[in-house]
Specification:
Layout lengths: L1 E4 L3 H6 L9 E4 L5 H13 L1 H5 L18 E4 L6 E10 L3 H17 L4 E5 L8 H4 L6 E10 L2 H13 L18 E10 L1
Length: about 190
């Protein structure tokens, strides 16, 4: 499980952040959905889970399982993550995957360790509400893992200047004005 401190104001909106609260992004990586399903069933049946006191409002937690649509690289050594939440029209899913795959290769060239895209829907709060998603849109959460914030900060201007990263603004597969993005430093990696 990895926990990261979220800095994006929109991530605050997506979980209905209140004064005095911090927003964290956490994830648990499983080798497969079958292993995840068996592990979660066993975890929920474990008596120790009943003794845990949640130090947060679980009703406002965004949680779900998903399989990556694009994954390139390895998380080994990552200490800084950039995250993006994007509303993608269902008709543009394949175009988004092509764009994300191409971008992932370029991003890795500039020192990123891994690029991953995915996301589920929630019940009380979720990223759909945070990006004002339309009925025909699916939500993609993408993250880029870097060896450090310094490596990211040094690479980012070069990445943005690279012609391969210049979007065709007339043919974008998503509405960039509703994209959420932010950087996160690791506070726990277990």
């Amino acid at each position: 499980m990895t926990c990261r401190g979220a800095r994006s104001l929109t991530s605050h909106r997506s979980v209905q952040k209140k004064d005095g609260e911090a927003v964290l992004f956490s994830r648990i990586e499983w080798p497969s959905k079958d292993v995840r399903d068996a592990g979660m069933t066993a975890l929920m049946a474990d008596a120790r889970m009943k003794t845990l006191k949640m130090p947060f409002d679980g009703q406002r937690m965004i949680f779900g399982g998903f399989s990556p649509i694009v994954e390139k690289g390895s998380a080994k050594g990552a200490s800084y993550t950039d995250g993006f939440v994007v509303p993608v029209p269902a008709a543009n899913r394949d175009a988004y995957i092509r764009m994300a795959s191409n971008a992932a290769s370029v991003i890795e060239e500039y020192g990123a360790l891994r690029v991953v895209d995915d996301v589920p829907n929630g019940k009380v709060t979720d990223f759909r509400r945070a990006v004002d998603a339309k009925d025909d849109e699916t939500i993609v959460f993408s993250w880029i893992e870097w060896p450090s914030k310094k490596a990211r900060d040094e690479a980012w201007p070069k990445l943005m200047a690279d012609p391969r990263m210049q979007p065709n603004k007339d043919n974008m597969p998503f509405d960039g004005k509703r994209m959420i993005y932010g950087g996160f430093a690791t506070i726990l990696d277990a």
